[in-house]
């Protein structure tokens, strides 16, 4: 068992995946922010493949979620605001760094290998090809509004699906988790 070492196959075939680093209950509110606007979780390498290997000309937004302060203050609120744009990706998925470790490893090794590991990060794909990448260092010095503005421009250039992701009423009810990784219990 273990990793298949054939070139191009980084999917973990272990029966037991790597355990989460953080207490799952403590990170759930951070997950819920993205889930509340229609994100689907990709929890395994196989789920990552099912989404990103498609050659259907549909755009896919991928957010590697994180417990860090820039995820709370800029990344998640910025992504959610951007998804209120008139054009948005066809699909949006997320995996949590330190939680879905096998899925994150596969995503980084197969689809984001040109970049150093980064969490949070935001990527836009079409037909399995990376169109745009916003790494942590591109996020941490920006406000949520600045992140949203950059993403809206990228969506306008690369997406055809009509937005917004959720109604204005739902958007206004979203509660953002402001916890930082240093205050999250390890598993």
Model description:
Strand 5 and strand 6 (129-134) form a beta hairpin. The protein is 37% helix and 17% strand. The protein has 187 residues and is α/β, with parallel strands linked by helices.
Structural key phrases:
187 residues; alpha/beta; Glutaredoxin; five-stranded mixed beta sheet; two-stranded antiparallel sheet; 7 helices; 37% helix; globular
Order of helices and strands: HEHEHEEHEEHHEH
Number of domains: 1
Q: pLDDT average, as an integer?
A: 90
**How many DSSP helices?**
7
- Principal-axis shape equals globular
Give the total of beta strands: 7
Q: How far apart are the termini?
A: 25 Å
Main β-sheet: number of strands, strand sense, barrel status? 5 strands, mixed
Q: At CATH's second level, what is the architecture?
A: 3-Layer(aba) Sandwich
Report the CATH superfamily.
Glutaredoxin
CATH topology: Glutaredoxin
CATH class: Alpha Beta
Strand content: 15-25%
Low confidence ranges:
1-10
Structural class: alpha/beta
What is the share of helical residues? 25-40%
The gyration radius over C-alpha positions equals: 16 Å
- Tell me the strand order in the biggest sheet: 1-4-2-5-6
């Amino acid at each position: 068992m273990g990793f298949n070492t054939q070139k191009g196959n980084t999917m973990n075939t272990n029966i037991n995946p790597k355990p989460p680093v953080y207490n799952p209950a403590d990170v759930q509110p951070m997950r819920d922010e993205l889930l509340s606007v229609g994100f689907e979780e990709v929890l395994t390498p196989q789920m990552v493949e099912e989404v990103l290997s498609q050659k259907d000309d549909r755009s896919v937004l991928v957010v590697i979620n994180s417990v860090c302060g820039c995820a709370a203050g800029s990344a998640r609120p910025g992504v959610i605001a951007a998804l209120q744009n008139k054009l948005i990706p066809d699909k949006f998925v997320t995996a949590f760094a330190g939680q879905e470790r096998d899925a994150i490893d596969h995503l980084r090794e197969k689809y984001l290998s040109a970049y150093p590991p980064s969490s949070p990060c935001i990527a836009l794909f079409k037909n399995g090809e990376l169109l745009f990448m916003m790494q942590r260092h591109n996020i941490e010095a920006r406000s949520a509004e600045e992140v949203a503005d950059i993403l809206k421009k990228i969506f306008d250039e690369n997406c055809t699906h009509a937005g917004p992701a959720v109604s204005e009423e739902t958007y206004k009810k979203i509660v953002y988790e402001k916890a930082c990784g240093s205050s999250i219990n390890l598993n």
